[in-house]
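Chapter summary example.
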Amino acid sequence: MELAVVIPAYKSAFLRKTLESIACQTCNDFILYIGDDNSPFDLERIVDEFRDRIRIVYRRFEENLGGKNLIAHWDRCVKMSSEPYVYFFSDDDMMPSDAVERIYSSINAWPGHRFFRFPLNLVDSEDRIIYSNPPLPEGVSSAEELMCDKLGCVRSSTACEYVFARSLYDECGGFVDLPLAWGSDDATWYLMAASGGGAVNIHGRPVMWRDGSGENISSDTSLYREKLDATTRFIYWLRKNYRRKNSRLFRKSLKTYINNIFVTTVRMDYTAAELDRICRALAGIDIFVALHIYFKFRRKVK
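The structure predicted for these 302 residues follows.
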Protein backbone atom coordinates (compact mmCIF):
# COMPACT_ATOMS: atom_id res chain seq x y z
CA MET A 1 0.00 0.00 0.00
CA GLU A 2 1.67 3.22 -1.18
CA LEU A 3 -1.09 5.85 -1.21
CA ALA A 4 -2.95 7.61 1.58
CA VAL A 5 -5.99 9.71 0.73
CA VAL A 6 -6.30 12.22 3.56
CA ILE A 7 -9.44 14.26 4.30
CA PRO A 8 -9.46 16.92 7.04
CA ALA A 9 -13.20 16.80 7.68
CA TYR A 10 -15.65 19.20 9.28
CA LYS A 11 -18.59 19.77 6.93
CA SER A 12 -21.26 17.17 6.27
CA ALA A 13 -23.34 18.62 3.43
CA PHE A 14 -21.40 16.96 0.59
CA LEU A 15 -19.35 14.38 2.46
CA ARG A 16 -21.46 11.50 1.18
CA LYS A 17 -20.86 12.58 -2.45
CA THR A 18 -17.15 12.89 -1.76
CA LEU A 19 -16.94 9.41 -0.27
CA GLU A 20 -19.02 7.97 -3.09
CA SER A 21 -16.51 9.32 -5.62
CA ILE A 22 -13.72 7.67 -3.65
CA ALA A 23 -15.59 4.39 -3.27
CA CYS A 24 -16.00 4.19 -7.07
CA GLN A 25 -12.26 4.17 -7.81
CA THR A 26 -11.10 1.70 -10.45
CA CYS A 27 -8.06 1.02 -8.25
CA ASN A 28 -8.64 0.48 -4.54
CA ASP A 29 -4.98 0.25 -3.54
CA PHE A 30 -5.15 3.06 -0.98
CA ILE A 31 -6.26 3.82 2.57
CA LEU A 32 -8.60 6.71 3.29
CA TYR A 33 -7.83 8.70 6.45
CA ILE A 34 -10.53 11.01 7.77
CA GLY A 35 -9.73 13.44 10.56
CA ASP A 36 -12.93 14.80 12.11
CA ASP A 37 -12.19 18.28 13.49
CA ASN A 38 -14.69 17.88 16.34
CA SER A 39 -17.48 18.64 13.90
CA PRO A 40 -20.96 19.48 15.23
CA PHE A 41 -22.31 17.11 12.57
CA ASP A 42 -22.45 13.34 12.80
CA LEU A 43 -19.73 12.62 10.26
CA GLU A 44 -19.08 9.13 11.55
CA ARG A 45 -22.59 8.03 10.62
CA ILE A 46 -21.88 9.01 7.01
CA VAL A 47 -18.42 7.43 7.08
CA ASP A 48 -19.86 4.15 8.40
CA GLU A 49 -21.94 3.79 5.22
CA PHE A 50 -18.71 3.27 3.24
CA ARG A 51 -16.65 1.02 5.50
CA ASP A 52 -17.50 -2.06 3.46
CA ARG A 53 -16.32 -0.36 0.23
CA ILE A 54 -13.24 1.63 1.32
CA ARG A 55 -10.43 0.89 3.75
CA ILE A 56 -11.01 3.75 6.17
CA VAL A 57 -9.19 5.04 9.22
CA TYR A 58 -11.50 7.51 10.96
CA ARG A 59 -10.62 9.61 13.99
CA ARG A 60 -12.72 12.21 15.74
CA PHE A 61 -10.41 14.70 17.45
CA GLU A 62 -11.49 16.06 20.81
CA GLU A 63 -10.23 19.57 20.04
CA ASN A 64 -11.45 21.70 17.16
CA LEU A 65 -8.26 23.12 15.65
CA GLY A 66 -9.61 24.37 12.33
CA GLY A 67 -11.34 27.33 13.92
CA LYS A 68 -8.04 28.49 15.44
CA ASN A 69 -5.34 27.13 13.17
CA LEU A 70 -6.46 25.28 10.07
CA ILE A 71 -2.90 24.31 9.17
CA ALA A 72 -2.49 22.54 12.51
CA HIS A 73 -5.54 20.43 11.68
CA TRP A 74 -4.23 19.66 8.20
CA ASP A 75 -0.91 18.57 9.62
CA ARG A 76 -2.39 16.28 12.26
CA CYS A 77 -4.55 14.63 9.58
CA VAL A 78 -1.52 13.93 7.39
CA LYS A 79 0.22 12.46 10.45
CA MET A 80 -2.60 9.94 10.82
CA SER A 81 -1.12 8.18 7.78
CA SER A 82 2.25 6.62 6.98
CA GLU A 83 2.08 5.69 3.28
CA PRO A 84 4.84 7.03 0.95
CA TYR A 85 2.43 9.19 -1.10
CA VAL A 86 -0.40 11.45 0.07
CA TYR A 87 -3.42 12.64 -1.88
CA PHE A 88 -4.66 15.55 0.24
CA PHE A 89 -8.40 15.82 -0.42
CA SER A 90 -11.39 17.59 1.15
CA ASP A 91 -14.83 16.86 2.53
CA ASP A 92 -16.91 18.32 -0.30
CA ASP A 93 -14.96 17.74 -3.54
CA MET A 94 -15.09 14.80 -5.93
CA MET A 95 -12.41 12.79 -7.69
CA PRO A 96 -12.84 11.05 -11.05
CA SER A 97 -13.22 7.29 -10.83
CA ASP A 98 -9.76 6.62 -12.28
CA ALA A 99 -7.89 9.14 -10.10
CA VAL A 100 -5.99 6.58 -8.01
CA GLU A 101 -5.20 4.49 -11.09
CA ARG A 102 -3.72 7.56 -12.80
CA ILE A 103 -1.70 8.47 -9.70
CA TYR A 104 0.01 5.08 -9.76
CA SER A 105 0.52 5.30 -13.53
CA SER A 106 2.20 8.68 -13.11
CA ILE A 107 4.39 7.47 -10.23
CA ASN A 108 5.53 4.54 -12.38
CA ALA A 109 6.04 6.70 -15.48
CA TRP A 110 8.10 9.26 -13.54
CA PRO A 111 10.29 7.17 -11.21
CA GLY A 112 11.72 9.18 -8.36
CA HIS A 113 9.36 12.10 -8.89
CA ARG A 114 7.50 13.28 -5.81
CA PHE A 115 4.89 15.86 -6.81
CA PHE A 116 1.87 15.52 -9.12
CA ARG A 117 -1.09 17.65 -10.22
CA PHE A 118 -4.56 16.87 -11.63
CA PRO A 119 -6.67 19.01 -13.99
CA LEU A 120 -9.48 20.90 -12.26
CA ASN A 121 -13.13 21.82 -12.73
CA LEU A 122 -15.09 24.04 -10.36
CA VAL A 123 -18.64 22.91 -9.66
CA ASP A 124 -21.53 24.48 -7.77
CA SER A 125 -23.71 22.95 -5.07
CA GLU A 126 -25.69 21.09 -7.76
CA ASP A 127 -22.54 19.57 -9.34
CA ARG A 128 -22.83 21.86 -12.36
CA ILE A 129 -19.50 22.87 -13.88
CA ILE A 130 -19.01 26.62 -13.52
CA TYR A 131 -15.37 26.81 -14.60
CA SER A 132 -12.73 24.56 -16.13
CA ASN A 133 -9.04 25.23 -15.78
CA PRO A 134 -7.12 25.48 -19.07
CA PRO A 135 -5.53 22.15 -19.98
CA LEU A 136 -2.33 21.39 -18.10
CA PRO A 137 0.92 21.48 -20.10
CA GLU A 138 2.61 18.26 -21.09
CA GLY A 139 5.26 16.97 -18.76
CA VAL A 140 6.34 18.96 -15.71
CA SER A 141 5.41 22.46 -14.52
CA SER A 142 8.04 24.38 -12.58
CA ALA A 143 7.50 26.01 -9.20
CA GLU A 144 7.54 29.42 -10.86
CA GLU A 145 4.95 28.37 -13.43
CA LEU A 146 2.64 27.09 -10.70
CA MET A 147 2.89 30.31 -8.70
CA CYS A 148 2.57 32.69 -11.65
CA ASP A 149 -0.40 30.75 -13.02
CA LYS A 150 -2.11 31.12 -9.64
CA LEU A 151 -1.23 34.78 -9.04
CA GLY A 152 -2.00 35.75 -12.61
CA CYS A 153 -5.41 34.01 -12.60
CA VAL A 154 -4.32 31.77 -15.48
CA ARG A 155 -5.45 28.71 -13.54
CA SER A 156 -7.30 28.20 -10.30
CA SER A 157 -5.37 26.14 -7.77
CA THR A 158 -6.92 24.10 -4.98
CA ALA A 159 -5.60 21.51 -2.54
CA CYS A 160 -7.51 18.61 -4.10
CA GLU A 161 -5.40 18.78 -7.28
CA TYR A 162 -2.12 17.73 -5.69
CA VAL A 163 -0.45 14.46 -4.72
CA PHE A 164 2.89 14.55 -2.92
CA ALA A 165 5.47 12.20 -1.48
CA ARG A 166 5.66 12.10 2.30
CA SER A 167 9.41 12.65 2.04
CA LEU A 168 8.76 15.91 0.19
CA TYR A 169 6.19 16.99 2.76
CA ASP A 170 8.70 16.40 5.56
CA GLU A 171 11.48 18.10 3.61
CA CYS A 172 9.35 21.25 3.23
CA GLY A 173 8.34 21.28 6.90
CA GLY A 174 4.68 20.49 6.28
CA PHE A 175 2.16 23.08 5.16
CA VAL A 176 3.15 26.74 5.24
CA ASP A 177 1.31 28.32 8.17
CA LEU A 178 -0.50 31.53 7.16
CA PRO A 179 -3.65 33.07 8.73
CA LEU A 180 -6.87 31.34 7.65
CA ALA A 181 -4.56 29.08 5.60
CA TRP A 182 -4.97 31.89 3.03
CA GLY A 183 -2.23 31.25 0.47
CA SER A 184 -0.87 28.37 2.58
CA ASP A 185 -1.56 25.72 -0.03
CA ASP A 186 -0.10 27.84 -2.87
CA ALA A 187 3.02 28.57 -0.81
CA THR A 188 3.34 24.87 0.03
CA TRP A 189 2.94 23.73 -3.57
CA TYR A 190 5.59 26.24 -4.59
CA LEU A 191 8.05 24.84 -2.04
CA MET A 192 7.26 21.26 -3.03
CA ALA A 193 7.70 22.00 -6.73
CA ALA A 194 10.94 23.89 -6.04
CA SER A 195 12.32 21.03 -3.94
CA GLY A 196 10.88 18.19 -5.98
CA GLY A 197 11.78 19.24 -9.51
CA GLY A 198 8.37 20.59 -10.48
CA ALA A 199 4.89 19.12 -10.65
CA VAL A 200 4.16 16.24 -13.02
CA ASN A 201 0.88 16.99 -14.80
CA ILE A 202 -1.61 14.12 -14.71
CA HIS A 203 -3.79 14.34 -17.80
CA GLY A 204 -7.32 12.99 -18.10
CA ARG A 205 -10.59 13.72 -16.35
CA PRO A 206 -10.42 16.58 -13.84
CA VAL A 207 -10.96 16.70 -10.11
CA MET A 208 -14.12 18.58 -9.09
CA TRP A 209 -13.64 21.39 -6.55
CA ARG A 210 -16.87 22.62 -5.05
CA ASP A 211 -17.42 26.36 -5.03
CA GLY A 212 -20.60 28.18 -4.11
CA SER A 213 -21.58 26.06 -1.13
CA GLY A 214 -20.92 29.08 1.13
CA GLU A 215 -19.16 26.79 3.59
CA ASN A 216 -15.51 27.38 2.74
CA ILE A 217 -13.18 30.29 3.44
CA SER A 218 -12.94 31.28 -0.22
CA SER A 219 -16.67 32.02 -0.41
CA ASP A 220 -17.07 33.41 3.14
CA THR A 221 -17.95 37.12 2.92
CA SER A 222 -17.55 37.78 6.64
CA LEU A 223 -13.75 37.63 6.71
CA TYR A 224 -12.66 40.61 4.62
CA ARG A 225 -10.42 42.09 7.34
CA GLU A 226 -8.77 38.75 8.03
CA LYS A 227 -8.28 38.04 4.31
CA LEU A 228 -6.55 41.39 3.74
CA ASP A 229 -4.24 40.73 6.69
CA ALA A 230 -3.52 37.23 5.39
CA THR A 231 -2.81 38.64 1.92
CA THR A 232 -0.23 41.00 3.42
CA ARG A 233 1.43 38.12 5.23
CA PHE A 234 1.42 36.05 2.03
CA ILE A 235 3.23 38.87 0.22
CA TYR A 236 5.87 38.94 2.95
CA TRP A 237 6.22 35.17 2.53
CA LEU A 238 6.79 35.66 -1.21
CA ARG A 239 9.39 38.34 -0.46
CA LYS A 240 11.35 35.84 1.60
CA ASN A 241 10.87 32.62 -0.37
CA TYR A 242 10.11 33.24 -4.05
CA ARG A 243 13.26 32.62 -6.07
CA ARG A 244 12.78 34.85 -9.12
CA LYS A 245 11.27 38.07 -7.83
CA ASN A 246 12.86 40.07 -10.67
CA SER A 247 10.93 38.13 -13.29
CA ARG A 248 8.67 40.33 -15.41
CA LEU A 249 6.05 37.56 -15.45
CA PHE A 250 6.09 37.34 -11.65
CA ARG A 251 5.62 41.10 -11.23
CA LYS A 252 2.79 41.13 -13.75
CA SER A 253 1.14 38.14 -12.07
CA LEU A 254 1.50 39.75 -8.65
CA LYS A 255 -0.30 42.90 -9.84
CA THR A 256 -3.12 40.75 -11.19
CA TYR A 257 -3.36 38.86 -7.90
CA ILE A 258 -3.59 41.98 -5.71
CA ASN A 259 -6.06 43.61 -8.10
CA ASN A 260 -8.23 40.49 -7.82
CA ILE A 261 -8.00 40.56 -4.00
CA PHE A 262 -9.34 44.12 -3.85
CA VAL A 263 -11.96 43.83 -6.60
CA THR A 264 -13.25 40.27 -6.27
CA THR A 265 -12.26 38.85 -2.89
CA VAL A 266 -13.11 41.81 -0.64
CA ARG A 267 -15.28 43.64 -3.18
CA MET A 268 -13.58 47.01 -2.72
CA ASP A 269 -14.21 46.94 1.04
CA TYR A 270 -10.85 48.04 2.47
CA THR A 271 -9.40 50.86 4.53
CA ALA A 272 -6.54 53.24 3.77
CA ALA A 273 -4.46 51.51 6.44
CA GLU A 274 -5.05 48.09 4.83
CA LEU A 275 -4.08 49.45 1.42
CA ASP A 276 -0.93 51.00 2.91
CA ARG A 277 0.10 47.74 4.59
CA ILE A 278 -0.27 45.75 1.40
CA CYS A 279 1.64 48.35 -0.62
CA ARG A 280 4.47 48.46 1.91
CA ALA A 281 4.74 44.70 1.65
CA LEU A 282 4.75 44.90 -2.15
CA ALA A 283 7.46 47.57 -2.12
CA GLY A 284 9.89 45.01 -0.75
CA ILE A 285 9.41 43.03 -3.96
CA ASP A 286 9.04 45.81 -6.52
CA ILE A 287 8.40 49.49 -5.86
CA PHE A 288 6.68 49.96 -9.22
CA VAL A 289 4.16 47.19 -8.45
CA ALA A 290 3.49 48.84 -5.08
CA LEU A 291 2.99 52.27 -6.66
CA HIS A 292 0.74 50.84 -9.35
CA ILE A 293 -1.55 49.26 -6.74
CA TYR A 294 -1.46 52.31 -4.45
CA PHE A 295 -2.45 54.86 -7.08
CA LYS A 296 -5.04 52.55 -8.63
CA PHE A 297 -6.91 51.95 -5.37
CA ARG A 298 -6.19 54.94 -3.09
CA ARG A 299 -9.14 57.02 -4.36
CA LYS A 300 -11.55 54.14 -3.93
CA VAL A 301 -11.00 53.70 -0.22
CA LYS A 302 -14.31 53.50 1.64
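To summarize the output: The two ends are 55 Å apart (CA to CA).
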